[in-house]
Amino acid sequence: MDTLKKTLPHLHPIFVHFPQALFPVAFASFVLGMLTGNRIFESGALTAVIFGLLSSPVCIITGHIDWRLRYSGAMTRVFRIKIWGAYILAFLAAAALAVRLLHPEIAGMGISVPVILYASLLGACTVTCVVLGYYGGKLVFH
Predict the structure, then answer these.
(1) Residue 1 DSSP label
(2) Residue 3 pLDDT > 70, yes or no?
(3) Which of 19, 108, 112, 115 is most deeply buried (CB count within 10 A of its CB)?
């Protein structure tokens, strides 16, 4: 096991930064699109959500591998938060994508229930990323 730890790169920190950046960008881009009326920002938000959601399983799998290899699968409060948070993030992202796919003209809908729901889900993804990053930092910089 120690040999594997030394030869295997730190996969989780390598992959996790991708969705950690994409979801806040998606939220900011959507808000900017709604404020300016420029639909290119909403398209950017959709693209960021898709790539963030697609990268989530890789982050979850590499997190599980790192947790088992580097922390012997010890279940602490930090790991419980990170595990639950990862699944919550994936669920929120999938829900946001579903809302967006059900309302392809969301950028032109003005203030409405789908717009508020979509913005709230993107905001919740962003907050979840911040929480996951905070607790990841506690592991790295303990």
Answers:
(1) -
(2) no
(3) 19
